Task: structure prediction
Amino acid sequence: MLIPEWPIATDRELESLKEVLYSRQWGGFHEVVERFEREFAEFQHCKYGVTAVNGTVTLEMALQAAGVQEGDEVIVPAISFISTATAVSRVGGIPVFVDIGPSSFQMDPDCAARAITSKTRAIIPVHFGGPLADMDQLPQLAARHGLALIEDAAHAHGSEWRGRRAGSFGLAGSFSFQNSKVMTAGEGGILLSNDAGFDEQVRSFANQGRRQDQGWFHHYTLGTNYRITAFQAAVLLAQLERLPEQISLRTRNAQFLRSDLADVKGLRFQEIAPEVSSNSWYLFLGCVDQKTLGVSRNTFCRSLADAGVPCTPFYPHPLYRNPLYRAGGCRVEPCPNAEARIEDTFWLPHRALMGTMEVTGQIAEAIRKSCH
Ligand SMILES: Cc1ncc(COP(=O)(O)O)c(C=O)c1O
Result:
């Protein structure tokens, strides 16, 4: 089965890399970095963007700039990659894990509302798998309680809610460019915002506490060096050019799979809110109902893998059951949906959605066969 490899490498990346190579300005001050920040921010409907070494430190930067301090609580979903929670812990805060919707995989706004206390300072919804978390209710909830809303948009490059792109709804939007993401430079991240003061603060922090247009050896605040290289920005510009057509391709193939397999009882797919007007399709998420199918999720995944379709049997546990958080340092709200999804969910990576119609038909067939 000809499922494309990821990342996709073309002459376009090679040309951009060569330009940087021969410019002999390989660091973060090459104009290509500034250009990428400007173009990606604009693409995501934001005014400002600060690149950084990965999408974990961009979350930490956002929390720190939002004023989250020792003992402050930050609401995070129980299902995500670990960075969403550790970023909170790393700045001294307490992650408060709340449940996701039963089929959306997104933070449940009612659960988030119930978790708010006098110590809460921020909410970090994760746009899980590509579709956005509820960007009507969660920003309203944050505004009502005076909390910072920080979007973890590591899965959501190009995704939209009512025509507005991820990262533009809250105080800041954090993106990752790690190797598996839909835009990648191997590693990298960016923090987007629409607030000039916030942008100035995080930009200075990621660049040794310097100020724009001031001296190289003049440091105004306690910062660090989180700059990306010009090579990364060159690759990312090439990736950004291709993103819209890749999203269209993944959308076509995902929609085909979902409608072709709609008749398979015991198999269901991620619920995507009608307000999601574009979806990056970072993950193709589904759930196996063992009672109906007579096949366990793990057997299903193994059989798909044997047929040549990459398939991951979801995370092994909600974030709070990692040894790190079993030892404390967090608060855990009831999360029955997160617990249930650990047992029955699988995902296909986005490259499985990037083949021809023929390949997509073969994937549908392999999924059908794995259900028996
Ligand atoms: C939801 C989420 N947030 C944050 C990150 C962290 O990004 P990075 O790997 O660039 O540090 C990831 C990466 O996998 C992620 O999936």
The CA atoms of residues 18 and 68 lie 42 Å apart. The chain has 13 helices and 13 strands. The radius of gyration is 21 Å. The longest strand covers residues 283-288.
